[in-house]
Each structure stands twice: as C-alpha cells, then as structure tokens.
Amino acid sequence: MEKGYLSLILHAHLPFIRHPEYSEFLEEDWLFEAITETYIPLINVFDKLIDEGIDFRITMSLTPPLISMLTDALLQSRYIRYIEKRIQLTEKEIERTKHQPEFNQLAQMYYRHFTNVRYVFAEKYHKNIIHAFKKFQDMGKLEIITCGATHGFLPLMNNNINAMRAQIQVAVTHYEKHFGRKPRGIWLPECAYEPGVDQLLKEAGIRFFITETHGILFASPRPKYGIYAPIYCPSGVAAFGRDMESSKQVWSAKEGYPGDFSYRDFYRDVGFDLDYDYVKPYLHGDGKRTNIGIKYYRITGKTDHKEPYSHERALDKAAEHAGNFMFNREKQVEYLASIMDRKPIIVAPYDAELFGHWWFEGPDWINFLFRKIAFDQKTISLITPMEYLEIYPVNQVSTPSLSSWGYKGYSEYWLNESNDWIYRHLQKAAERMVELARTNLHLDENSSLRNKALNQAARELLLAQSSDWAFIMKAGTMVEYAVKRTKEHLSRFNKLYDDIRSNNIDVAWLADIEGKDNIFPDIDYHVYQ
Amino acid sequence: MDKAIIKEIFLLIFEVFKALYEILWKKIKNLFGLTWDRFFGFSDVSSEQATYQEWGVTDEDKWPSIPEAPPINLEEPQQKIERKEVAYLPKTPDLPDGYGDNRIVLMVRDPEWLFTYWELRKDLMDSVLNTLGAMAHTVKIILRVYDVTDIIFNGYNAHKHLDIQVTGGTRSWYIKVSEPNRSFCVDIGFLTFNDTFWALSRSNAVRTPCMGVSDVVDEKWIGIEKLYEKLYVPVDTGISESVFERAHRNWQESLKEYVSSPESLSGLAVSKK
Q: For residue B108, what are the β-bridge partners?
C-alpha cells in the first residue's frame, strides 16, 4: 500500500497563431515543433504503456488556443508539409553523412523519428491528435484540464468580473465540445490566482486548480498540511499547491536533469550549422537561418566545443534520472507521511513543451519514471488531483494568496515598463465588450450580421488578452510580433465596437477577419452580459 | 525716399511686432496652458524614477470635493480608425492615445508595488484651473495614495496618505508602497502652493497580497510546523530568492549563457517560461 501520491501535471499551451493570409509563417513553426518534439512523443509513450498494460496517471492542461490550432484544417495540412520537408532533409542527410558513422546513425534516428511522427499524426490519428488525448482520458489514464480561453492573465483584468468569467466560460464550453464532458480542473493561465477567481470557477463547475507554492503557503487561515494536501477556497473549489523540491530537480540550472552533458544540445541545429545553400530550401521564405529540428550534438559541457550526440548514452541517463527522481519522491513521501495524519500528495507541474522540445529526452524520462513507479517500489502511487479529492473529500477551508508562477511569484513579468501600455487598452476593450453585450441582449431575426459582429468582437478581445503577448514583450525576442498582435486585435475590436454602435457593419471586412481570427467558431457574446 | 526702403522698414516693424506678440502669447500659454498640455502627451517615460515619497496624514480641512465630470455623450463619435489600414495593409495599426475618459486606474504588481495609469479630460482640468484663478500657475500634479485598509473610505478617513509629484507627459506610474496585505486607492489632482488638493479623479481600491505565512489559525486544522520550517525562509525586505526565484527560468537562462548561442533561440522558447 502506498504512503503518498505523486501528481505529474503538464501544461500544454501555445498562443493562437494562424496566418491564412501568408503561404507560410515563421511563428506557426512553434506549433509544428511542439507536435513533432513534444505532443507526439508523449502520445507514443502513453500508447506504449497502455499496450503493455502498465498503469499510469497524468494530468495535462490542453489550452483552448492549442486545441483550436490542433483541430484547424489549414494548420493540419501545413503541418504535413512541415514534417514532409524534414523527412526529405533527413534522407539527404543520410546520404551526406554516409562516411561519418556517428552522424549517419543520428540522421537515421531523425529519419525514423520524423517518419513515425508523420504516421502517428496523419494516419493513426487522422491529423487530429486531440483524439489521442481524448482516448487516454476516456481510458482513465489522463485527466485533461482546461485553461483560460486565450490564456489571459486574470489578476491583471482589474476585477472586470465579466471579462474574467468569459475567459473561464468560453474555455469550458470549448472543452465540452472537444471532450464530450465538462472539465473538472483548470490550469489558471500563468498559474495566476487572486482571491475571488475561485468563485468564477465554481460557477463553471470546475472542482480544482493548481497554484504556485506560496499561493497555498500564504493562504489564510494557515493550511495545516502546507502544499501537501489541497485546501478548499471559500467557494468550495480545491486548490493544489506546486511542490518546489520536485520542480527544482527538473527545472533548476544547477541541479536540473535537462542540463546533463549527455543530453542533446538544443542550440546546435543544422539550420545554423550546415552550408547555407544546402539548408536554404528548408528555411522560411525570407531565407533567415532558423532551427530545423535536426541536432547532432550533446551538451558536452560549459564549452563551445560539442561532441556528437549518442542517443543510447542519453537514454541511459534519462533512466538514471528517472530513478533518481523516484528515489527522492519516495524519501519525501516517507518523511511527509511520518508527520502527517493522511497520505500526502506531491504536485509536480511543468510546461509540457519542456519535455521533448527543450529536453529532447524528456518524454523518455517520463516513460522510465512511470515504469519504475509501477514495478520498482511501493511507497508512491501516481494520482490525479481529482482522484485525490475522491479519497479525501474533507479538506480545510482557506483562501489562497495572490500568486503566479512567473518571475518573483506575482504579476511583474506581465506588468513592467516593456508591456504596461497594453492594460489601458485591454481594460477599455473589456469594458466596451460588456457594454456591447448589455446593449444587445436580444437581437431580432434580421440581426444576423450584428450577431456575427458581436461574436467577432468577443474573439478579438479574447485574442488580445492572451498573456503570451505581454510575456514576449518582456522576454525581448519576437517583440515586434507580440506588439503587432496586441494592436491588431485591439484595433479590430475598436472598429467593431464603433461599427456596431453606429449600425454600420462592414460586411466584407468582417468576413475577412472572421476568416483570420477564427478561434471559437461557436462563441456567444452573451457570455459578457 | 526709395519705395523699396520704406517697404523694408515696414516689414521690419511688422517682424518686431510679430516677435513681441509671440513672446507675449508664449507667456500666456505658460501661465495657463502648459500645466495640462503635458498630461495629454503620450510618453514612455519610465515612471520608476526616484521620487521623494513620504507618508502623511489626511488633512480634512484641505480636502476639496471631486469635481463632477461632464456627462459623456454616448453618441459622440469615437476615434475612427481607417478601415483600409486595419484590414488590408500589413502595417501595424496605431491605438488611440485616449478614449475621452477622465479616470485613474490602480493595479497590483506584487506585495510592494502598485501600478497606476490615467487619462484626464482637458475640459475638466480647465474648469478646475479657472476656479483657481491666479493660483493656477503654481499647481503641481500629484498622485495621492491612500491607505484604506479595512475602512469604508469617504475621502477623509484614510489611515495615511502619500503624495507623489508626477512630471512631463507621464500617464502612468509605479508606486512603491512596501506594505503587503493592505488596501490602497489613489487620487490624481492639483496641489496648490498653499497645500490645497483638488482631486480630478479617484481610482478603484486594491489590496496587496500577503507575503508571509498567515497568523490566522483554524483550531480544527492546526498547522504542522515542520512543513513550514522546511519551505519558507522569511526575509526582511523584498521577496526571498530561494523561495521565489523560478527555478525553470533559471535553468533556461543559464542554458543560454553557457551551453548555447543565443541567436539560435527558437521561437517556441520565447513563448514559454
């Protein structure tokens, strides 16, 4: 019988990036890289565990923008083009490296990887990998939780309850459409909570969310079990706190696994390393060197000199690290169980894209970890937060503190000199959206154009609210794109606001932006009333 | 006399008068106009400049009422955006400088810092300055930050307040309150040389988050001390790096430092933590 539980949570999210007005678009690659390196490798791990009858539990947030992109026909067909180009390049690479066995082996590994990914994507799951995740959920192995509709940072919405509610409600409706039931949990965008948000979750039927460590540690009254058991907010929604120890082992620069010298180096990519004319056909139209996803070196050390990558050696390391992680959790659980009068839960959330994209061996590490937990020990069991609540339905009532998982733990990363200019516009637009919804409560049958314009206004507002834009402005790379997206959606919103109020809707223009910003086709603007 | 010379003299006299007129006009503008003009300019001036800040006690006598803003005509045309620019050109559209509002908004950044932004209506400022008459040219624009923790604030009963003078073209400000778990609101207005404050707008109230383990204990759920000893490192000022520094961020940055060439940073990387 286990002494405690481990809940592994992966937050899978990318901002909504889809540009039908261009034949190809650099930022769309973010999705394609994540499919190739993270989502499909994870699907393969889960499928294999199930085939072999090995039990596991994992929780994943699939955000509405990510689901929207993964189910979008245009992006699906563009992904096929993306992966086929890579297959073609690896074929050339096998030929080019035929006299260099170390690299040739790797070229063959990438060829196998890309062809497998193509098969899983196009044939096994018919271009819609959401089906795979749904399948795992229906089998009880995976708990899919939702997120804000467009990953809007709720504590910076200035208490515009309607705008915050729309982020939650639109996400819940969207989830229901794709998974056939309501979500039971939510990953709050950027893990950002402020007291009162739980009330909106309650209204939406959500049972639990995850907060940053100090969200629970600084909760009031003081939580008896710290972060090792959930608390109930006054609304009755449960809050689970992130465990620092397990986070650090994976993320930390000094102690973190992904920095091991045997692992693949993210930054040495053939897009930069090989002869320009040779790789040019695989770059974007502007011919600028970018990552292609074929990387031949291991991290090697704190040096520019890189040794060729050995996949076998890296897999051995991943198995060793999985063993180490499990050992530490066992020790942690044994200690916690000795001072607690119930079984502790260790909540370990990570960005999904860390696994595979950044840390190439990450999905293998999860694979090893789940197998070891199943066969090599008896101290811990994998669990989802919902299952824990079923075992322990009685929990302390306490209000978590404002917190996020961003730099310094509050809102600074999303509110500083690089991005604070957006809030006066976002807040105004949110107020105007509420005004539009309230002044258009009932439309008659002849108002289908007005109805369309109102729904599009809601989409533009939601897209502008995505926390990714503020994040990118602060991070300092691709800033121009984030600024452009923010301004574009807000301008479209403002024009819709003016057109709706003056009853002068531009039909052709509306159809154009409906085609571009086509997220949430079934949205109903009344959510803002 | 030569006609041309007479013409030159006339022109010269005209120029002298023109210059005198301009100097005079500038003076008049300085007296009445510039006080508000700078608050309509759009500027990215960093507002975390060191400003002398000192808490004071609200002085009832010097507290004037907030002038009523004229009602906004809802049918008034808003800033129109050229359709073609938005829809069909790849150019990034500009957002309006303002929305015709008279308001100040307060937001929380962390336990120590607040952020405020504002937009003031010229007609409203005019009417206040007119009332002030000759005193108008001496006014300073200030933010008056009130500690309104656990009270129903009526304008006079704040626990304490803090005045911050704001300067040239600024439309937003970071306010260091350094006080977790307290409520604040802010007024923007004119402060005259004799310390009379004329508020132009009052913000919403916000509460800073607490930054420590709660003293409130539920008798049925007495906290297990050991769970807190291990995790929480109390600090005097600022936020404990050991507790709050995001480990994953750390990892990414050091990867960039010593394992990599930053120019090859992938797009996906920057969109994530």
A: B114
Q: Look up the ipTM and state it.
A: 0.94
Does A420 fall in a domain? Answer: yes
Q: Say if CB A298 and CB A263 are below 8 A apart.
A: yes
Q: What is the mean pLDDT of chain A?
A: 96
Greater pLDDT, A481 or B49 = A481
Contact status, residue B104 vs residue B117, Cβ threshold 8 Å: yes
Q: Binning pLDDT at 50, 70 and 90, where does residue B247 land? A: very low
What is the residue range of A501's domain?
A: 416-528
Phi, psi of A384 (to 5 degrees): -100, 155
- The encoded tokens of residue B154 equal 């009526």
- B contacts of A513 (beta carbons < 8 Å): 87
Q: Between residues 155 and 174 of chain B, which touch chain A (CB distance below 8 Å)?
A: 172
Task: Transcribe A489-520 into DSSP letters.
Answer: HHHHHHHHHHHHHTT---HHHHHHHHHHS-S-
Nearest to B213 among A218, A252, A258 (CB): A218
Architecture of the B55-67+84-207 domain:
Sandwich (2.60)
Q: What pLDDT score was predicted for residue A285?
A: 85
Closest CA of chain A from B270, distance in Å: 6
∠ CA B72-B78-B82, rounded to 5°: 175
Is residue B169 very low, low, confident or very high in pLDDT (cuts 50, 70, 90)?
confident
Q: Has residue B18 got a pLDDT over 60? A: yes
CB contact under 8 A, B87 and A358: no
Question: What's the pLDDT score for residue B270?
Answer: 31
Query: Structure tokens of A317?
Result: 């390391």
Smallest Cβ–Cβ distance between A477 and the set B95, B227, B265 belongs to B265
Query: Does position B103 have pLDDT exceeding 90, yes or no?
Result: yes
Domain ranges of chain B: 3-32, 55-67+84-207, 219-271
More confidently predicted of A504 and B91: A504
Residues of chain B contacting residue A214, judged by C-beta atoms under 8 Å apart: 243-244
Residue to mutate among B92, B257, B273, with most A CBs inside 10 A, is: B273
- The rounded percent of chain B whose pLDDT value lies above 70 is 56
Are A397 and A503 found together in one domain?
A: no
Determine the Cα–Cα distance for residues A41 and A116; give it in Å rounded to an integer.
10
Residues A86-91 have a mean pLDDT of 98
Q: Which of A13, A403, A428 sits opposite B99 (nearest CB)?
A: A428
Q: Which amino acid is at B173?
A: W
- Best to test chain B binding among A420, A425, A461, A509 (most B CBs inside 10 Å): A420
